User: What shape does this take?
Amino acid sequence: MNRRNAQITADMIEERTLFHLRYSRGKTRHVATDFDLFCSFAHTLRDLAVDGFTATQETYLQKDVKRIYYLSMEFLIGKMLERNILALGIMMPAREALKRLDIDLSKIIELDIEAGLGNGGLGRLAACFLDSMASMELPAYGYGLRYEHGIFRQEFEDGWQKERPDNWLELGYPWEMVRPEYTVPVFVYGRIANISSTHRGRHPVWTDWQMFKAVPYEIPIVGFDTNTVNTFRLWSARADEGFRLDVFNQGDYVRAVEEKNWAENVTKVLYPSDNTHAGKELRLIQEYFLVSCSVQDIIRRYLKNHSNFNNFAAKNAIQMNDTHPALAVAELMRILCDEYHVPWEKAWEITVKTCAYTNHTLLPEALEKWSVDLLSRVLPRHMQIIYEINHRFLQQVEMKYPGDTELIQNVSLIEENGVRQVRMANLAVVGSHKVNGVAGLHSQLLRERVMPEFHKIYPDKFINITNGITHRRWLLKCNPELSALLTDKIGDSWIKNLEDLKKIEPFATDPAFQKEFIAIKRRNKESLAQYIEETLHVPIHPESLFDVQVKRLHMYKRQLLSAMHLITLYQRIKADPKIEIVPRTFIFAAKAAPAYHLAKRVIKLINSIGSVVNHDPVVAGRLKAVFLPDYNVSLAERIIPAADLSEQISTAGKEASGTGNMKLALNGALTVGTWDGANIEIAQHVGEENIFIFGHREQELAKIAQEGYNPWSFYDSDPDLQNVLEAIRVNAFDPAQPDLYADIFNDLTKNGDPFFYMADYRPYIEIQKKIETLYAQPEAWAEKAILNVARMGWFSSDRTIREYAEQIWNVEPICIPDPELLEEQREAPNDPKK
Assistant: This one.
């Protein structure tokens, strides 16, 4: 523990909490609500982080370090209170201080607010990276948007997903600090005028634009067991002139706030629907807003220590998390060329050396494209710059590969077929010095299938860095009993270095350790079962196999395949009520994009199956199926420690990496999965004998598709599959609506089964039989589960970030001095003793 945090006592925490109760909340202990107490305690923890926060920024400035800037549209940071207690290393004094005030810490933790800043794995990965960069003492900043409503709060009505606004800011957010002094302008629309000047000759000028403002909010990211406290900066959109008093006094009350409403819509919600032209336009503005604010802020900070841009790339690394921030390439060029008059060639050299791009998808529809017409209207100067980048790039390609028109068409930043569009992934690749995939297979397919032409042109630009997770949240925080058992056996070094979990391997066959391990899993399952009963009023048997599939809902992730297995088991019981099967509880949690109608129908189907299976007396409790609403970080922290089986069953070649697979395995769940994403690396590390791999591999599916995939051939040869599909087709779970799931049936049959459910159904059913056999042997199951925990050290996001730092960013850790020592040095700068 760092020196300062070792000196934090219960007296200090108690005194500071009472101070904030009176002076921040205006309450005394006798009239304070639970929320007052939470806010007062949260502000106390923030106070304890602020000294490190200021010392960190001061050190970075004084040493003129190279800084990492991580740009992402999503950051699923989860609740911060307990995480900050653990990071500061003050759990004991914090608990003692609150006990003196007659406050239950666990109750306060439940009141913490979960920031609505993301949707799925992309945002959770970004949050893990913030944790690791701070804990590894890397000079890093996260840049995101302060969405007013985030993605959405999910509710179920008659089994259907309903989207409600997530009002996470309704009561305020105690972890943030507003920084209006760093507000920056953002420009959109307008036109380009060509003017002449003495120094620059004839050049384009962006004029007649519409301006609004970006106000930054900062959240301190406390490193574990270190003085480093990094900055997570979120931008909120504001109108340049929020209220027109003259218009209001004329009686036009709507127009008086029109500009304010327009500007604030930019950060109103995460991912506005792009089904309409207005939605597409808002989403483009939203992405540009993120990069414009952030690039301006990066340059402002750089110019504190520099008078020109000669060292810009040596002092700054911009990491674009997927294609959403790809406009950073054009924006950095615009600012360098237009505002600081850096020559094009020099500006381009700086941009490429500064920027790097992480690709997260192999799905063509997820590689963003914007119509040239839309981009020209919203960002006319950027469209010009993109044209110029493309022109110069294609000239180089033509010189290197003369006459290869197909190559030029494929790598061009502009897609010319049909509606002309800007390919944002191509812009990101051309404008970056490194492009990384996020798992071994994903990076291979990125090079060979998605971007082979770019790999041909830039063979050294593409690398792999497999994703990771922060074990400090996904084990230490969410599974305290297992963490305590591990620490008791091998010490606590694993908290800083997860590879040390290898030391637990010898205990995998130890009967006493197995007994403790099984008991902890049982208590976690009992806790989740209680939550499920309180939430859904469905009683769950903790001794049943907890079969868990929790992730964003998409057809390629194949939650439907798990539902098909559930139907298979149910039909077997109905056919033979005396059949012996291992009791199993199917646990789902996922959100479907509001416009993704097929995915929303899958949610309805699973809920319909559950409503029948859970109440059928013939089943007699041997099967249960629940779909927990509003999946988020906090719900994941409840589910993951209780899971027995981790469902990672995406179509091979479609999942970039996955990180839920890592979290579940780290907490002692066995994985059933396809040879896809990070499942492959997990199998390689834990041993293929300790994971259940099934199904066709990517190259096999490619061959099947090439030869002409016919899903009916699998249907015709498998009576179980026929029965399952027939139940879906006629809606056996609600016969009053017989056509409800016709779209699902058609997707698997008439529409060609694009994600190969039919091809993988039988291998999936057969591997589940092996899983049942092993689960019936508790000691053998426990041994494999313990080995999974012991061998997951490589999947720490600390390892991932170390690879980014070494292979892309070229950034070294910076030791932050104790804030008190820094203050002493500041007061006596010439004293050699200081």
Q: What stands out?
A: Residues 319 and 684 are 29 Å apart (CA to CA). The radius of gyration is 28 Å.
